[in-house]
Design a protein that fits this description.
CATH class of the largest domain: Alpha Beta
Number of domains: 2
Oligomer: single chain
Distance between the termini: 27 Å
Number of strands: 19
CATH superfamily of the largest domain: Enolpyruvate transferase domain
Shape: globular
Helix content: 25-40%
Strand content: 15-25%
């Protein structure tokens, strides 16, 4: 993976962007596919897989649980020998870092073992992220957790089936975790929701992929990451120009809806009001470029993002204010009123890849009209979570646009 310095000044574009973007594989699809392939009875090769911190965490965990996983980063393939719902290793230590999909999916996954003991931990941010509701649901299946948050030890008793009540309002990943393993319960397992279920498109993705893997595919193609595409849909709105994509627009990802937001903003940079409840990973992309738009930008439906990698609502408000913007923050929304941008600002990323990538796109704006950097990203390496080569790709596009 590329290595970056502790801080990275963003070189603005002095010419309209042009070029072609090949997106990394979807993190959401790759990590679901890894679990589903491990649950299958045959060997599955994932093509176009994402190689990033989050997927490496999942691969390492599967290996710790006894699965044979062969990776080829150059070919972007991962091959997994499925065990038909069996968890080979009875006891293991699983470090999930700050990977939400790995944390939730693995917690339900290991419960297929009737006599397991699994020690889970993550980084400091993961220790603040919700997992308790999922553990409560799994305890109705006979599992016992030592705590309701990370770190915890989970003693498992298999999945007997029946009805599991679940409050998935804080994260749809908890519902997806149960849906991934439900076909391997001893008797039919039904999830009864208490309240809303987080992001519905990600639940629909899980359901669709469970159906796909029911056919035991030997080869499975991973779609390009629609969340990552949002940055390169926004870039031409900042710099002018146009970008083409080689692998964008598959049917599984709800985040393709950002394409409509980008079209509404357009090269005229029109301010918009948008509810991001169903594709919230992309709200930061719009928020970061809001200072360039022609009026107040209103972003709604984002309360649940306060419990993601960081409090994304508060963090976004804080960084925009540092840039001189007038921001009205409520529990579920941001209203951003453009003001003259302040130069010389260092953007705090809160160990959150989406802050780094979103504000990097704003930094491509030639604010000083001399091609000199005016905005610096702290901890650019945090992009390794889902898009390790992001800044290399951004620089490649800048050079090609100037050529």
């Amino acid at each position: 993976m590329p290595s970056y310095p502790p801080t990275l000044p963003i070189q603005p574009f002095t010419q309209p962007v042009r070029g072609t973007v090949t997106l990394p594989g979807s993190k959401s699809i790759t990590n679901r596919a890894l679990i589903l392939a491990a649950l299958s009875r045959g060997t599955t090769t994932l093509h176009g897989a994402l190689f990033s911190r989050d997927t490496q965490i999942m691969v390492a965990a599967l290996r710790a649980l006894g699965f044979v996983v062969v990776t080829d980063e150059n070919a972007l393939t991962i091959t997994i020998a499925g065990r038909g719902g069996e968890i080979p290793v009875r006891e293991a230590r699983l470090d999930v870092g700050n990977a939400g999909t790995a944390a939730r999916f693995l917690t339900a996954f290991v419960c297929l073992r009737p006599d397991g003991a699994y020690h889970f931990d993550g980084d400091e941010a993961m220790r603040r992220r919700p997992i308790g509701a999922l553990l409560e649901g799994l305890e109705t299946q006979g599992a016992r957790a030592s705590d309701r948050r990370f770190p915890f030890t989970l003693h498992t008793a298999g999945l007997r089936g029946g009805t599991v009540e679940l409050d998935a309002s804080e994260s749809s990943q908890m519902l997806s975790a149960l849906l991934l393993v439900a076909p391997h319960a001893k008797t039919p397992l039904t999830v009864q929701l208490k309240g809303a279920a987080g992001s519905k498109p990600f639940v629909a993705m899980t359901e669709a992929m469970v159906r796909q893997f029911a056919a035991a595919p030997a080869d499975y193609a991973i779609e390009g990451d629609a969340s990552a595409a949002s940055y390169f849909l926004a870039l031409p709105l900042v710099t002018g120009g146009h970008l083409a994509f080689t692998n964008y627009g598959g049917p599984l990802q709800g985040d393709v809806k950002f394409r409509e937001v980008a079209a509404a903003v357009g090269h005229a940079r029109r301010a918009v009001t948008q509810n991001f409840r169903e594709f919230s990973d992309t709200f930061l992309t719009l928020a970061a470029i809001a200072p360039l738009l022609d009026g107040p930008t209103r972003i709604l439906g984002i309360a649940h993002t306060r419990k993601q990698e960081t409090d994304r609502v508060a963090g976004m408000a804080a960084e925009l204010k540092k840039l001189g913007q007038h921001v009205i923050e409520t529990d579920d929304a941001l209203e951003i009123h453009p003001r003259p941008l302040q130069a010389g600002v260092e953007i705090e990323t809160y160990h959150d890849h989406r802050f780094a990538m979103s504000f990097a796109i704003l930094g491509c704006h030639d604010l000083l009209q001399n091609g000199r950097p005016w905005l610096t990203i702290k901890d650019p390496g945090c992009c390794a979570k889902t898009f390790p080569a992001f800044f290399d790709l951004l620089e490649k596009l800048r050079r090609e646009s100037c050529a």
